[in-house]
Amino acid sequence: MKRAIQCCLILLTLNIGAMAQMTHGDDEASIKKMLADQAAAWDRGDGPGFAAPFSEDADFVNIFGSVFEGKPAIAKQHSMIFAGPYKGTHLTVTLRKITFPSADVALVEADPVVSGVHAMPPGMTPPADGVLKTRMKFVAHKTDGTWQFIAAQNTVLLPMPPPR
Questions:
Q1: What pLDDT, in 10s, does the model give residues 42-74?
Q2: What is the pTM of this model?
Q3: Which of 42, 39, 49 is nearest to 71 (CA)?
Q4: What is the 3-state secondary structure (H, E, C) of the chain?
Q5: Which residue of 23, 105, 120, 123 has the lowest C-beta tally within 10 Å?
Q6: What's the pLDDT score for residue 25?
Q7: What whole-number distance in Å separates Cα of residue 90 and Cα of residue 32?
Q8: How far apart are CA 4 and CA 1, in angstroms?
């Protein structure tokens, strides 16, 4: 009898683990779609489309360390750069990892690459090869079954200085 109870507990534990993986699999698919939708909006030069996955009160820190508070500010900033230095560029996003500290919070790490860069915002030199590489970290929150980014930080990857 004791062995039968142990077997049942093991099977129950495995079942719960499989269900949790399925849930995270669905959550990961939703988050991956958010990233793909952002890349498509970037390629269209669509600031509001780029900002769509963000919550109304999200914070976005750009490569200069400027903070844009709220979805309207994120959309406005991206509309401005799509009409200016990043006009006609192409965004490719490679997902590095997604971790779930809780069932309704995800940390998302991605490596965006912007190609076709011919100009940069003031204070930055355009990359010689026309390719801007950054590292993004998002915090996503799930409310009523829907994921949204509530915070993001973008950090430009610069070449390492030569050794001294």
A1: 999 999 999 999 999 999 999 999 999 999 999
A2: 0.82
A3: 49
A4: CHHHHHHHHHHHHHHHHHHHHHHHHHHHHHHHHHHHHHHHHHHHCCHHHHHCCEEEEEEEECCCCCEEECHHHHHHHHHHHHHCCCCCCEEEEEEEEEEEEECCEEEEEEEEEEECCCCCCCCCCCCCCCEEEEEEEEEEEEECCEEEEEEEEEEECCCCCCCC
A5: 123
A6: 86
A7: 18
A8: 5
